[in-house]
Design goal:
Blueprint (H helix, E strand, L loop, with lengths): L2 H12 L3 E5 L3 H7 L4 H21 L4 E8 L7 H24 L3 E5 L7 H14 L6 E8 L1 H17 L10 H5 L12 E4 L18 E4 L9 H16 L5 H13 L1
Parallel strand pairs: 1-2, 1-5, 2-4, 3-4, 5-6
Helix pairs in contact: 2-3, 3-4, 4-5, 8-9
């Protein structure tokens, strides 16, 4: 079998259906350039666009981005306020483009703590894209994996108390129905930029069998090449054929031209 055939067969079978990314390193990127931290978050928006475009072209079913954790409220008030304004701006500016490309947008997390204005923007963006059948883009905002599991347990407890479920009916499968993104495949690949080797309370239940990929690249510098290298690493672990990032990019480009 030719190399191209091996790469094609391998990637078609083994490219991840669902990728989650911890977008770390924005603040350090800015500090290295003598800028305030929020400038790093603004620079990271370009990497978000590239990641979404690449994931959609790769035929992924879902991409989940960790935008704001429940622990991020501990950051300086000025930075938090700037992040909220940036979130508002990006939602307003990007949602039409997502809609035009058939991408469904969802925000996962406890959004009740956000301003009424931001909650309204989130609701409108989700409603606009709800009927789209392409890739699902999940933005995790005020999200924590432990919060997700506790919320699921509370909902199940409510079902049991109401007599709609018996305790013996609770299984891994039924529990999965109550966590965020229950209608999507579990996360196949977690990417973390910025050099740290931890998952920081991100989609804990959904990561049960995920491959983990850590890169020192700071998020504003994370581009299509870095993303394809992460996918190549995933494919080589899954199928043991050792595809390169360049081969993955060539395959995806070929699929788009068919």
């Amino acid at each position: 079998m030719s190399l191209s055939a091996v790469v094609g067969e391998t990637a078609n079978q083994s490219l991840p259906r669902h990728v989650a990314i911890i977008m770390d390193g924005n603040g350090r990127w800015a500090q290295q350039r003598g800028k305030i931290r929020v400038q790093g978050h603004k620079a990271g928006v370009k990497s978000v666009r590239e990641a979404v475009s690449f994931a959609a072209r790769a035929g992924m079913q879902a991409l989940t981005l960790f935008a704001f954790s429940s622990e991020n409220w501990r950051r300086p008030e000025g930075e938090v306020n700037a992040l909220m304004e940036l979130f508002m701006m990006v939602l307003g500016r990007e949602v039409d483009k997502l809609h035009q490309n058939g991408i469904r947008l969802r925000v996962i997390g406890d959004i009740a703590r956000f301003s009424d204005r931001l909650q309204e923007k989130i609701a409108k963006a989700e409603a606009l894209t709800a009927g789209n059948t392409g890739m699902t883009l999940n933005i995790a905002a005020n999200y924590g994996g432990q919060w997700d599991i506790v919320r699921a347990a509370q909902q199940i407890a409510g079902e049991v108390a109401a007599g709609r479920m018996a305790p013996e009916q609770i299984s891994e499968a039924t529990f999965s129905d109550f966590v965020c993104m229950a209608d999507l495949p579990a996360v196949d690949l977690l990417i973390r930029t910025g050099g740290d080797h931890r998952i920081s309370n991100f989609v804990l239940w959904q990561l049960a069998y995920a491959e983990l990929y850590f890169t020192p690249v700071l998020w504003p510098d994370f581009d299509e090449q870095h993303f394809s290298d992460a996918l190549a690493s995933f494919v080589s672990r899954e199928r043991r054929f050792g595809c390169t990032g360049e081969q993955i990019r060539t395959l995806i480009a070929g699929q788009q031209s068919e």
